[in-house]
Amino acid sequence: MAKITLSNLRHSYYPNPSSPSDYALKEIDLDWSDGGAYALLGPSGCGKSTLLNIISGLLVPSEGRILFDGQDVTELAPDKRNIAQVFQFPVIYDTMSVYDNLAFPLRNRGRDEDTVRSRVMAIAEMLEVTDMLDQKAAGLSPDNKQKISMGRGLVREDVNVVMFDEPLTVIDPHLKWKLRSKLKELHQRVKATMIYVTHDQTEALTFADQVVVMQLGEVVQIGTPVELFERPAHTFVGHFIGSPGMNVLPCEVSAGQAMLGGQPVALEGPIQGEAKGQTEIGIRPEFVSLAETGLPATVTKVSDLGRHMVVEADLNGTTVSAVINGTPPEKGAQVHLQFRPDQTRLYVDGWIATNPQEG
């Protein structure tokens, strides 16, 4: 296993990039600790696969360096980086048995058969596929094929990092939660450095200790799942994480006070700087309540999500979502919205611009 450092990393697919828009990856500086579980999360086209290919050695970055435990591997070929990779589609040999598939990475590196058997049996037990070891891989279900593909990545004890590139894309939805749980369990047992690339927030947040959220080639926030939910550093993170996503409401700022529809709105703390640019209030639906007083709005939609209701209301032409328990108001009802102050933040040009109030 290894600590992975990305230093001043940039990449463009153009031979002579001349502007920031020419870069698929803008400047990235990251440190991933030895043995950690990490996720790269973002929509298609945000740069996460480019970053994964750079770490694996399939791409050489236009600028910057990649270090494994302080050793510069920027120019090393993939087979010199001592990594394992699990892809969207299972990479296994259909004509081989499950045992031989799991054994292949070790045999390919000249390990003796006692070592091979010990490691294969240990991984098979972790994956709960011991009873399949004599079966041909061709006859396995898609989820079991992906289990074997994961096992091939985990069977070696000498890898610097195991990377998962959208590994559950082809798995039926009702089986995904089983494999997500199994992967988390495997990480806790083998303690390998793992990087999981996905566009699915559920996969990222249930697997990773630290999530790197990317948009348009930039890292917009790095944090624990709780940190990303409770205090998004950027409105994109607020939108992307959570269901429903964070309310982002255009507002005005006057004399250090945020205003919605001419009414002041209490924020989590003082505003940083002069708040020049596009100003917006961000608050998650979980912290919006319906009350006797507050911001007047009209209910436009009510959704029953089972565990709670989501009420959507029109506030000065902007939709605000509120998560509530109990009987919801009817569509068209006049209501008042209240925002929990310690969860109400100001964003300027997308970035958070308030400090939490101390005490």
From TrEMBL:
Domain ABC transporter: 4-241
Enzyme class, broadest EC rank: hydrolase
Family annotation (InterPro entries): AAA+_ATPase, ABC_transporter-like_ATP-bd, ABC_transpr_FbpC, ABC_transpr_MalK/UgpC-like, Mo/tungstate-bd_C_term_dom, NA-bd_OB-fold, P-loop_NTPase, Transp-assoc_OB_typ2
Assigned EC number: 3.6.3.20
Cellular component terms per the entry's GO annotation: ATP-binding cassette (ABC) transporter complex, substrate-binding subunit-containing
UniProt entry keywords in alphabetical sequence: ATP-binding, Cell membrane, Hydrolase, Membrane, Nucleotide-binding, Transport
Pfam families: ABC_tran, TOBE_2
Classification via CDD domains: ABC_Carb_Solutes_like
An annotated Gene Ontology molecular function: ATP binding
Domain of life of the organism encoding this protein: Bacteria
PANTHER family: ABC TRANSPORTER ATP-BINDING PROTEIN, MALTODEXTRIN IMPORT ATP-BINDING PROTEIN MSMX
Similarity remark: Belongs to the ABC transporter superfamily.
Protein name: sn-glycerol-3-phosphate import ATP-binding protein UgpC
Organism: Pelagimonas phthalicica
